[in-house]
Design brief:
This protein is of the alpha/beta class. 44% of the residues lie in helices and 17% in strands. Strand 4, helix 5 and strand 5 form a beta-alpha-beta unit.
């Protein structure tokens, strides 16, 4: 299924998509990496706004996963982004960066690839109707929550802050309303024993590739998707400083050393898996 992937392409996206890319990288015709933070004119302004609303701990966690940790991992020889990993796989996809995926130039470029599937994962902006209509078959997204609950931003934070007993991820069709399209498949797990936001994220990213693999193999399909119940929908934005303080008061944190070790181990596993599936004679991007 000829696919255009739209993603922020960061470390967490690679951890989530890595196994899927190993299996289906030949289906990816193009990757568009969205570079601007949601609803912001500049990333610097976005970080400042996040710090004012959410405080140091939350902002540091975002910077850690998006900037600081990938830099540290790259220095030790790891491959920390989606684009670098696809190059490691000797992918024939074309790569683009865009501050606004809804810009008419970006949409025209997507359209030129004639995608059957438009696959969104952690893209940093809501898709306009014209973009959603570019694939000949369907536009799909994977969201870090059990929709219709916890639509919106950073659901992994809110699951811990609200002491939920169960979490998961949702593969759904994209429609004009954010995170509201028909549900293709969900994967659930217990939150027992999870004490950090990063640990929860790592459990979620482990669910993503299996969902996509089942969809691309034909085990699941948008034809059997079920509509979401809008009466059950909850929507969250970035937390306030008071929410972050409440998370700490309830005994939870953002990350610990064990989480960082787990990330490094998972990247090493992906690199080995990627090396095993590369075309003969392919050159590593490391």
């Amino acid at each position: 299924m000829r696919t255009v992937l739209i993603t922020n392409g960061n470390l967490l996206s690679l951890l989530a998509l890595g196994e899927f890319l190993c299996r289906y990288h030949s289906e990816i015709a193009a990757v568009f990496v969205t570079t601007r933070l949601p609803s912001q004119k500049s990333n610097l302004r976005g970080v400042a706004s996040m710090w004012r609303r959410s405080g140091y701990r939350y902002t540091h966690f975002k910077l850690l996963t998006n900037v600081l940790l990938p830099r540290r991992l790259r220095r030790r020889g790891a491959i920390p982004t989606v684009v670098e990993f696809l190059k490691h796989l000797n992918s024939q996809a074309e790569f683009f960066e865009t501050a606004d995926i809804n810009d008419c130039t970006a949409i025209d470029r997507v359209r030129r690839f004639r995608p059957e599937i438009l696959l969104s994962f952690s893209a940093t902006s809501r898709f306009c109707g014209e973009l959603v209509e570019t694939p000949s078959r369907v536009a799909i997204n994977v969201h870090y929550a059990l929709l219709p609950n916890y639509a919106g931003l950073s659901p992994y934070f809110w699951y811990l802050r609200n002491r939920e007993s169960e979490c998961g991820v949702t593969l759904h069709q994209i429609i004009s309303r954010l995170d509201a399209g028909p549900i293709i498949e969900q994967q659930r797990f217990s939150m027992e024993g999870l004490r950090t936001v990063f640990a929860l994220v790592l459990r979620q990213v482990a669910c993503v590739s299996p969902l996509l693999n089942r969809f691309y193999s034909g085990e699941t399909s948008e034809q059997n998707a079920r509509p979401q119940d809008p009466a059950q929908r909850t929507y969250f934005k970035h937390p306030t400083r008071q929410d972050v303080a409440e998370l700490k008061r309830r005994g939870f944190g953002f990350y610990d050393r064990g989480d960082l070790v787990n990330v490094a181990c998972r990247l090493d596993e992906l690199a080995r898996l990627g090396s095993s599936v590369r075309s003969p004679g392919a050159q590593s991007a490391e």
